[in-house]
């Protein structure tokens, strides 16, 4: 990983929102280096700030929010300094595009599918209408729309949910972006459709070579798509590492808790591991480790001082006092020990639930 | 007032460098750990129940409505104005000796058409009466009529509308009745009724409300239909809740804000109605002063003695607008989305 | 287990139920087609399918919200579909309760928690006096891990998980026999799903409940359900005991669903591919399909030709499972 180029580097990002007379700190000093060609998954609960964080990469924060500290370097441009839509031209939607959760909100219901793709292509490339249309149709075919040319003039409501999301992906990729941000792209879809969309994104990534940021709350999806993972909680990344490190050797008690509470790992007749309470209110100043009040393993210092990132390996860092040499040594919960063996046993050879005839 | 507006308008656009600083928050560096850090590396106590406690102060709907409403100085100012106008128009006429059927100064030429002055605040009219007395007597009667009519409209309209919105069977024939009534010209009904019933408070209020309630009912019906199929109503149905309880506990509480908005438009609208009917000669009748009749009487002097016309019109405007603003602000405050 | 099914008491019986909706004039959309299954007292029966499969429609038919256009539903042996007496209707309401998917949408935002939980008590006068009612509400809150002081709060003051527990308490206070849980955890954050599932299991044990658990996620269902029915486009395609379904899935749709559920294991996830299921067009030539028993207690929607293929697959799976025991 070390020899790979950094394509985007966010440093000490802080984001605040104004809500009536108060300020809410949605992101608290988050840094992230994104390597070219990788898939970085950000996993967290709602309100952890995973969406807000990536919206700063395209300057799409809601109007009451600002980046109040930090820098985001992308090709020698500090994205935090960009203000007007004109500044963003050439970056948002062109070099960095986003696929959102609900395809219906990204598509205009009264315009044909084809015209919406053509519009984006024409905006960012100087080519003739005919060429744009050809590009659009080939893009539609590429994202798996059967009879793309025939369906060019149809409207969004004539497409199914999964097909619409394919179109949104086609639009996002029509300008050959370097970074594709997928913000819970499959949460609103059925599992079988989800599997298809994930596969599509992975295939296209291989073919077109873009870098993906994948935001999700579903650890199963993370396992499927990610090269590296960042776990977010209370507006901070609290642990990051390669996907194997996060799943097989997690260090932060929150990551433990997230993994252990998965119903997939439940044993019938026994209780599932669960996390008590609710995430911290971002209106308050958080002292110490934000997860401490919900953490049965919390140390006294967790309530007094914010932990720094401790290095686990070159690629794996975790923000917990448990890694301090002075801390008592703690094993991760029993449920997630030998995770791979357990799941292999559960799902059969190759994880296909005993289905191996294809 | 200007300062106040300025403060609030510019508050929104505070400078970027101030963005994110909570006023009450003093910026302090990382809290110093007083004791030796090393001692803190031991298990902290963990209480499961603790995480269930809700720290926020207790929420009460009406308290929040009140707090939101009085939170704005503008609201307080306009409310005081409304209370003052209403109170004044009810109290003052009982102290003035004005009687619309009497003209004690009709032969005193020196008292006619006087412009407003310290002695005659609003001046005097064509028969030597104090315009001040006439206007407030009229304002009182107009307010009585419109408030009573609004109350009747709303009570009947809400009850009928709530049931109408809930019952699909009732909807079928109520919609037909609504179509018929809304297509009959109101003036026609007013003329016929005034012919049959004569003039006076009772007949006028009856005339104003006899068909008007159905528009309230129709409005409520649409609102009810919007929230009728929400899941929490389905949940109530699964718990065996009767339709009536659903209307009063599940539906109407959600409509407080929109009903308030409706009332805030209805009161001024009915004042104008009264003015209109009185102007047409279908209103309260000769024996009662009203804003409508006053304006109608004074219209002919618009050129020669403009104060006679403009003073009652201004009073009408002030009453209508301030009532409307208070109603709107109350409606805003009644919307829980404005509560913190 | 399956062998003593016959001795177990059936609490809810769905028999050849069709449910259709009018779309436009004279056009009908059949949301559920010829669904049949029995739910035994004390079990958790899961109905799994994707959106538009008719799973919620069928669940709601059991509490008389959706009328059946054909077939019948029996509760404790008595017909509860179609026209029934008011007394019977009240009986159904008391004994079959529902837990909803979205706790935010299914609670009355303008009522206190006390009212929300007491609603059923009021409707059936299930309390002696005010004191008794308060005691019952307190007990219900305690059962779901909430505090008595929450009574005077409003739903919006609670977190999603707490709200869902209020929804559970409101159903439990009726002391029902059967609970229909319509995707009770899918609207919740991942970190609190486990808590709700634990709670449902605990209450089931304590109160001898039966669950009809409606879900779209097979992996969740494996943990909670005793038996599972897979429904696809209004048709039930496979019914089996939970472990049986995971070990011997035979219908291609079940297999496709299983292969699509992502597991929290990067090594496995990166190896496997999901299998796409495309429904064969209803071929008028093909002999009609029906539910057939392929293993004891394991039913699949098939005709003769299908059965040949399914049995072959089953043999392979049995061989594989024997090897890897």
Largest interface: A-C, 57 and 59 residues
The H/E string of chain B reads: HHHHHHHHHHHH
For the biggest sheet of chain B, the summary is:
none
Strand residues, percent of chain B: under 5%
Order of helices and strands of chain C: EEEHEEHEHHHEHEHEEHHHEEH
Describe this protein with a few key phrases.
A: 358 residues; alpha/beta; Rossmann fold; 29% helix; B: 340 residues; mainly alpha; MetI-like fold
Task: Explain the overall architecture.
The complex is a heterotrimer of chains A (358), B (340) and C (325). Chain A has helices at residues 50-55, 85-88, 103-106, 113-124, 129-142, 148-151, 161-173, 191-208, 219-225, 243-248, 253-260, 339-347, and strands at residues 6-19, 22-35, 39-43, 65-74, 77-78, 96-99, 179-183, 211-216, 228-233, 236-242, 310-311, 317-318. By secondary structure, chain A is α/β, with parallel strands linked by helices. Among the domains of chain A are: 105-174, no CATH class; 232-349, Rossmann fold (3-Layer(aba) Sandwich), CATH 3.40.50. The model of chain A has no long low-confidence stretch (mean pLDDT 88). The model of chain B is unreliable at 4-15 and 25-33 (pLDDT under 50). Chain B is flat and about 100 Å long. In chain B, helix 3 crosses helix 12. Chain B has a single domain, classed as Orthogonal Bundle (MetI-like fold), CATH 1.10.3720. Chain B has helices at residues 2-11, 61-70, 73-95, 131-166, 168-183, 186-197, 201-209, 213-228, 231-238, 243-279, 291-298, 306-334. The longest helix of chain B is centred in the last third of the chain and has 37 residues, at 243-279. With 340 residues, chain B is mainly α. Chain C has one domain (8-279, 290-323): Rossmann fold (3-Layer(aba) Sandwich). Helix content of chain C is 38%, strand content 24%. Chain C has helices at residues 55-61, 86-95, 113-124, 130-143, 160-172, 190-207, 218-224, 242-247, 252-260, 266-271, 304-323, and strands at residues 10-22, 28-40, 44-48, 70-75, 78-79, 96-99, 178-182, 210-215, 227-232, 235-241, 290-295, 298-302. In chain C, the strands form two sheets. An eight-stranded mixed beta sheet of chain C has the order 6-7-8-3-9-10-12-11, with helices on both faces. Chain C has a four-stranded antiparallel beta sheet with strand order 2-1-4-5, covered by helices on one side. In chain C, strand 1 and strand 2 form a beta hairpin. In chain C, helix 3 (113-124) packs across helix 4 (130-143), helix 3 (113-124) packs parallel to helix 5 and helix 4 crosses helix 5. Chains in contact: A-B, A-C, B-C. At the A-C interface, helix 8, helix 9, helix 10, helix 11 and helix 12 of A face helix 6, helix 7, helix 8, helix 9 and helix 10 of C.
């Amino acid at each position: 990983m070390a020899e790979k180029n950094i394509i985007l580097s966010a440093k000490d990002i802080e984001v605040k929102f104004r809500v009536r007379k108060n300020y809410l700190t949605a992101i608290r000093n988050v840094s992230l280096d994104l390597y070219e060609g990788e898939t970085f998954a950000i996993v967290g609960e709602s309100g952890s700030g995973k969406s807000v964080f990536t919206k700063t990469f395209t300057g799409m924060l809601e109007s009451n929010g600002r980046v109040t500290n930090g820098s985001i370097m992308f090709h020698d441009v500090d994205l935090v300094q960009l203000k007007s839509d004109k500044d963003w031209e050439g970056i948002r939607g062109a070099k960095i595009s986003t696929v959102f959760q609900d395809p219906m909100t990204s598509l205009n219901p009264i315009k044909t599918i084809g015209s919406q793709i053509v519009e984006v292509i024409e905006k960012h490339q100087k080519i003739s209408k005919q060429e744009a249309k050809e590009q659009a149709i080939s893009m539609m075919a590429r994202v798996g729309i059967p009879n793309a040319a025939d369906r060019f003039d149809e409207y969004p409501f004539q497409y199914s949910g999964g097909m619409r999301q394919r179109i949104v992906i086609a639009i996002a990729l029509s300008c050959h972006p370097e970074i594709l941000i997928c913000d819970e792209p499959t949460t609103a879809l059925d599992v079988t459709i989800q599997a298809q969309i994930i596969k599509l994104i992975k295939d296209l990534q291989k073919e077109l070579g873009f870098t993906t940021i994948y935001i999700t709350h579903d650890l199963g999806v993370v396992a499927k798509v990610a090269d590296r993972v960042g776990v977010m909680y209370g507006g901070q990344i609290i642990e990051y590492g390669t996907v194997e490190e996060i799943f097989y050797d997690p260090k932060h008690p929150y990551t433990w808790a997230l993994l252990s509470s998965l119903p997939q790992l439940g044993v019938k007749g026994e209780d599932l591991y669960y996390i008590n309470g609710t995430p911290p209110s971002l209106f308050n100043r958080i002292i110490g480790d934000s997860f401490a009040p919900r953490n049965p393993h919390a140390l006294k210092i967790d309530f007094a001082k914010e932990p720094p990132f401790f290095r686990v390996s070159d690629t794996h860092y975790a923000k917990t006092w448990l890694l301090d040499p002075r801390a008592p040594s703690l094993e991760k919960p029993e449920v997630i020990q030998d995770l791979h063996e357990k799941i292999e046993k559960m799902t059969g050879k190759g994880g296909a639930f005993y289905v191996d005839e294809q | 007032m200007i300062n106040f507006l300025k403060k609030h308008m510019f508050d929104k656009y505070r400078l970027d460098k101030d963005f994110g600083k909570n006023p009450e928050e003093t910026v302090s560096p990382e809290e110093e750990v007083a004791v030796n850090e090393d001692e803190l590396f031991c298990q902290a106590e963990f209480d499961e129940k603790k995480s269930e406690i809700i720290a926020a102060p207790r929420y009460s709907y009406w308290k929040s409505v009140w707090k939101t409403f009085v939170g704005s100085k503008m609201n307080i100012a306009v409310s005081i104005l409304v209370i003052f106008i209403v109170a004044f128009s009810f109290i003052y006429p009982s102290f003035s000796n004005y009687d619309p059927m009497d003209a004690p100064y009709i032969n005193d030429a020196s008292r006619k058409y006087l412009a407003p002055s310290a002695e005659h605040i609003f001046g005097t009219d064509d028969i030597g009466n104090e315009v001040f007395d006439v206007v407030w007597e009229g304002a009182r009667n107009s307010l009585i009529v419109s408030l009573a009519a609004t109350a009747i409209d709303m009570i009947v309209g809400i009850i009928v509308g709530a049931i109408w919105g809930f019952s699909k069977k009732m909807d079928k024939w109520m919609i037909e009745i609504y179509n018929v009534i809304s297509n009959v010209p109101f003036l026609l009904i007013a003329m016929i009724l005034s012919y049959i019933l004569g003039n006076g408070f009772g007949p006028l209020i009856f005339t104003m409300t006899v068909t008007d309630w159905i528009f309230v009912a129709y409005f409520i019906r649409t609102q009810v239909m919007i929230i009728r199929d929400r899941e929490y109503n389905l949940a109530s149905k699964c718990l065996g809740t009767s339709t009536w309880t659903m209307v009063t506990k599940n539906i109407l509480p959600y409509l407080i804000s929109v009903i308030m908005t409706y009332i805030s438009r209805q009161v001024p609208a009915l004042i104008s109605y009264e003015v209109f009917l009185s102007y047409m000669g279908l209103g309260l009748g000769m024996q009662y002063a009203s804003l409508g009749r006053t304006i109608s009487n004074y219209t002919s002097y618009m050129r020669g003695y403009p104060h006679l016309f403009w003073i009652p019109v201004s009073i009408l405007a002030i009453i209508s607008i301030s009532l409307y603003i208070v109603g709107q602000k109350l409606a805003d405050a009644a919307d829980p989305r404005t509560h913190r | 287990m399956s062998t003593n099914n016959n001795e177990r008491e059936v609490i809810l019986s769905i028999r050849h139920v069709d449910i259709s909706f009018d779309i436009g004039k004279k056009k009908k959309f059949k949301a559920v087609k010829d669904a049949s299954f029995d739910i035994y007292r004390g079990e958790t029966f899961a109905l799994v399918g994707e959106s538009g499969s008719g799973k919620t429609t069928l669940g709601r038919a059991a509490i008389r919200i959706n009328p059946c256009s054909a077939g019948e539903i029996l509760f404790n042996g008595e017909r509860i579909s179609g026209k029934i007496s008011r007394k019977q209707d009240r009986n159904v309401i008391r004994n079959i309760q529902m837990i909803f998917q979205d706790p935010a949408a299914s609670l009355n935002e303008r009522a206190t928690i006390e009212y929300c939980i007491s609603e059923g008590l009021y409707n059936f006068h299930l309390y002696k006096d005010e004191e008794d009612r308060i005691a019952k509400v307190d007990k219900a809150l305690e059962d779901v891990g909430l505090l008595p002081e929450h009574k005077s709060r409003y739903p919006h003051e609670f977190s999603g998980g707490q709200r869902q527990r209020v929804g559970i308490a409101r159903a439990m206070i009726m002391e029902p026999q059967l609970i229909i849980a319509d995707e009770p955890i899918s609207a919740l954050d991942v970190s609190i799903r486990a808590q709700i599932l634990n709670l449902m299991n605990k209450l089931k044990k304590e109160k001898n409940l039966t669950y009809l658990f409606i879900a779209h996620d097979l992996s969740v269902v494996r943990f909670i359900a005793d038996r599972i029915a897979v429904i696809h486009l209004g048709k039930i395609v496979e019914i089996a005991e939970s472990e049986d379904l995971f070990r011997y899935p035979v219908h291609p749709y079940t297999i496709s669903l299983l292969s699509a559920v992502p597991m929290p294991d990067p090594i496995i996830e990166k190896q496997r591919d999901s299998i796409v299921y495309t429904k064969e067009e209803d071929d008028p030539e093909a002999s009609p399909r029906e539910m057939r028993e392929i293993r004891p207690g394991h039913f699949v929607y098939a005709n003769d030709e299908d059965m040949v293929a399914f049995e072959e697959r089953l043999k392979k799976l049995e061989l594989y499972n024997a090897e890897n025991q």
